[in-house]
Amino acid sequence: MEIIPESVIKWLLEEENPSIRYRTMVELQDIPTTSEEVKKVQEAIQKDPVVQNILKNMQPEGYWQVKKREGRIIGAGVEYADWSTTHYVLSYLAELGVRKDNSQVEKAANRYLSLQQSDGDFWNHFSCLYGLNIRTFVKLGFEEDPRVSKTIDLLKTKIREDQGYLCDLHEGKRKTRLVKSCYRGTVKVLFALSELPNLWTKTHTKRLVNYFLDRNVVYKTKHQTEFVTRETGKTIFPFSYRAGLLETLYALAKMGYGDDTRVQNAWNILQDHRTATGRYILDWTPGKTTNRYFYPGPKQTENKWVTFYTYLCLKYKKRVV
Fold first, then answer.
1. Apex CA 226: angle with CA 1 and CA 212, to 5°?
2. Do residues 61 and 70 lie in contact, with contact meaning Cβ atoms separated by under 8 Å?
3. Residues in CB range of 4: below 8 A, 6 or more apart
4. Predicted TM-score (pTM) of this structure
5. Cβ-based neighbour number of residue 221 at 10 Å
6. Would you say 173 and 182 are in contact if contact means Cβ atoms under 8 Å apart?
7. Sign of torsion, CA 95 99 103 107?
8. Is residue 86 within 8 Å of residue 64, measured between CB atoms?
9. What pLDDT digit, counting tens, does each position of 168-189 carry?
């Protein structure tokens, strides 16, 4: 793994951000979660103003709602919008290091899971939705929940001829040719599978990995000098429906493909975000009015979350799976 500059480690371990401090200790420094120091940081996360603000705004029934421009209020169901409905808020809590042992989080997670469809889907087979949900619930501590297992089983069967994923909204809309899979949604499934190592050797996972390797990760299959989407080569946080650079590199590196030559261009793009201090730049995040709960910092500046995830990607890059 690339050696992290001592000044960067000190920056990531600053007490003002207990979530970054906790994840740096556990995931970058490999300090056991049983250590007293780590336990103290876990307690600090629960008291952090960011976490407290999220939990304060939870509806008594266990969800977060948003008022749309046309006046419609959503959030009680699985429909999602902007970056502040339940689907995203639960993912933020997972990123921040909160788990289901928090009673409010357990309530909200169980309520959301109760809205699951019979086949494990949540809404129109949006892979950008169920992919992120799988990762969220695994990180919250629900990996063994049969409802999560049902959604994992769903993703095994929904992989398409071109090795990607597509929602019901677009499936079959063309009569004479196959609709290409959605890159954004496919990224979310890859992201989910990166947290499920028992599935890494399965055929459907290898097919999915090839979807990315065959395009050198971030490019159009037939035009491999053009990004698949405008955000593909950008550092984006927090993770949402968009398909940023960190998600794909994190997943591929963690699953053992970080040193594949077809990934090198993506690594080069990420390294272009490094500053002289050894920190990394955040390209894009939604504004505070759009994402009212988890603002990671201003765009085009050195960012702790991007820096943490970059070094975590680089750590996984050299790991033998």
1. 50
2. no
3. 28, 278, 311
4. 0.96
5. 12
6. no
7. positive
8. yes
9. 998 877 766 789 999 999 999 9
